[in-house]
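Predict the 3D structure for this chain.
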Amino acid sequence: MPLSAEELRKGFEWAARAHQEQPRTPADAFRRWDGKTPYVAHPTWCAMTILTEFKLSEDMRRVGALALLFHDVLEDTLAGLPDWCPPAVTTLVNEMTFASSAEEREKIWERSDQAKLLKLYDKVSNLLDGSKAPPDKWKAAVEHALKLADFVEQTYGELHIVKLARAVCLPKESVNRGRLINVLEQSKLLKYCPLCASLLERRQCTGCERVCCSVCDFVHWENPKLAVVVLVPLDGGLVLVKRSEPPAVGSWCLPGGFLEPLETPEAGAIREVREETGLAVEIDKLLCVRSVGHGQNIIVMFYLARALSGVTPHAEDDASEVRSFRADELPEKIDFPSHRQMIDQWFKGETTGAPG
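Done. Predicted structure below.
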């Protein structure tokens, strides 16, 4: 029988109360990635996603949705399951309950096929909001999710959750904002067509080997990514930020980053400075356009900007520190060669607008 609206409402309310009012610890009431989002957002996403799996039977979707709503109640709260909980749901929740992630990765394979199916929804949801996880934990989670995805596809067919798992399960480096990935290496991670979900393949297309769909006319055009970097003179020096996120954590660099969709380079430059330093700036001029090189398919536009008065720079976004450096104060650790080159040229007066 299909899941009724009343049953869904009761299930959501029970899960919400359990996680919000009876967590094992105060921190368990919220998602760990920000410590603010109510924990119930996680089981709700899992339950809503399985309800869209029309390749599964109505009964499997009903039981699965309820089990996913309750799947962390026994692990993370002091509440039990509701008295009205169907026996099949209780069984699945017990099968999905483990003392630790390590125990889960080892013993889930001893549980029922349906328990393994539901665990894939749990793992994908965790990966979606876990991009700040340490690389070792991310790698273990990705390997576990992909193993579950392979099993689910073999057992139940190519469900939506399988496609989501393979889209999310990328190397840690590629989900960190600003990661300079060789686009040719990145394209090797692509497996399914975003238009028709058929397998992708590499073949000759318009004179080059490209990633193309094996069925429809989709082509993954490996065009360069466009980034902006900004030189902001302040107090006799240049504003630099210390990176708190990969790549080059702990290194100093000029403020900048990749453009957003439909964003002009000038608007992107102003936004990046504001996001990383808190400074409001006005673009003065475009200094130069360079290719990053070193196997990176990235074009960088270097701008000179003027800091507007009334704002003191302070670290925001993916910066841990921000300050203005004079020529004799520059930090040794500036890992991006193009940034180091532009900084040196500016202080030597080799770029227009530099002090000389």
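The longest helix spans residues 135-156.
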